[in-house]
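Researcher: Going back to the complex we discussed earlier. I've cleaned up the inputs and rechecked each line, so this should be the final set. Can you rerun the prediction on the complete assembly and write out the structure?
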Amino acid sequence: MRATGSRRYRQILWLLTTRDLKVRYSTSALGYLWSILDPLVMAAIYWFVFTQVFQRDVGEEPYIVFLLSALLPWMWFNGAVGDSTRAFLKEAKLVRSTKIPRTIWVNRLVLSKGIEFLFSIPVVAVFAIFGGASVTPGLALLPVAILLQAILTAGVGLIVAPLVVFFRDLERAVKLALRFLFYASPIIYSTHNLPAGLHTWAAFNPLSGVFSLYRSAFFASELDWYLVGVGAAMSVLLFGIGLAVFRRTERAVLKEI
Amino acid sequence: MTSPTRSPTAAGAPAGPVIEVKDAGIRFRRNRRGRRTFKDLFSGQSRRLRPNEFWALRDVSFTVRPGEAIGVVGRNGQGKSTLLKLVAEVVLPDEGAVSVRAGVAPLIEITGGFVDDLTVRENVYLTAGLHGMQRREIDERFDEIIEFAEIGDFLDTPYKHLSSGMKVRIAFAVISRLEEPILLVDEVLAVGDRGFREKCYARIQELLDGGRTLFFVSHSERDLRRFCTRGLYLDRGRLALDAPIDEVLARYAADTGA
Ligand SMILES: Nc1ncnc2c1ncn2[C@@H]1O[C@H](COP(=O)(O)OP(=O)(O)OP(=O)(O)O)[C@@H](O)[C@H]1O
Ligand SMILES: [Mg+2]
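Model: Rerun complete. Updated structure for the full complex:
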């Protein structure tokens, strides 16, 4: 017998992830650098705009650490959801010729972008050391944040990936929605900076809770259990919806690609 | 979890059928441009045919015992490839059921898993792994695979730089080494040169002699007679005849010749 069930699932996830890394490193000289250069450049831009150009009164000090602690996880979410629009289209040949459990096509994106995220964590550490930020006990919540974000990202990916196969316009719609979400999520600001009326609603963006957890590693006041609770519930809900959508559309996806 | 020898012969193999297809049907959309709505995407498996859909296969039932060699014939577009894909479980039936109780080595779109930018060596490990082979098993069979494909000099060449014949060679070599009990072959050998095709046929014969179950789609009467004992004749999405291969070929000839 072949390896079955979850063991085979992990084995294939691993194979596909290493495949992507190999392809990346065999075709680009800077490889790993790209995955940290991107957020670094963005962080530099926002840091410049908000601390040098405008008089900033949002976020916490040091701002660069505040920024990166949400920007890097955002990159993970953004990358995985963005790529999931092409999850089936890009691998159409493989999907058509192997009976790999189909959720892998989404989960592998969550995993590979997640690994990139883990590799970029040292960048925050460096800025924290030089910027004079100190860690708080909230650091212990990092694994919770990662788990929660993985569930959320997989859930959204499972919804997006099959639907794009039928409605190609969704590909661009998702890109647009992500750009909107970037500003609608507490990345360059904190949920505290929102008017009181919006605060309640911000919780329904599950990223608010996730970022609150990440940020509590450096800024104790950023930890807000209301955001985390609602965010966790939303994430689990989205994951459930994702699985349901995926099951219902799988048959049609296989015919279409 | 893996036994070192996965001999597909009678020893340890289930006595019952390895493949059981029961009232299977699958429908496709006739035109891609047609509007698709959320509603019909989620409306599940109704037996009703929506406008601009057709049944590519319907009410197909048969069982296959281990070791049988089955040839599938029919005119173009009658559902042969679709039937093989159902057995490979890369598409799912809209009605009825397809149960496959043993591993499948699908020689369908065999180059599907190969990645242009990776070398031949990396691709062999990747594809074999995706089809469920363990690393240790691949190590053991690696030399055999390369020798079969005769591309020992190109191990570190990116896959994209191989000729199309060489691509098929290495893909066939990998998939046919999967040692799975069921082998599905869908007209994949058209690209190889004559020598290689002969070699592939010899390999298929060897697998058959080893007790594998074969599903073979071909338009070549000679090949069908050479390998198969039983034939399935598909016509307009129905299983028109399930009989010994000679009978099936005679009926097919009669239908098309007339
Ligand atoms: N994914 C798909 N989407 C829509 N229609 C499809 C799809 N796959 C197959 N069909 C249709 O189903 C019918 C059967 O196709 P199939 O490929 O099984 O034929 P075939 O018997 O293998 O033909 P050939 O001898 O040419 O290989 C055809 O009308 C084809 O257009
Ligand atoms: Mg065909």
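Model: Worth noting: Residues B 80-81 surround magnesium ion (ligand 2) (CB under 6 Å).
Researcher: Good, that matches what I expected from the previous run.
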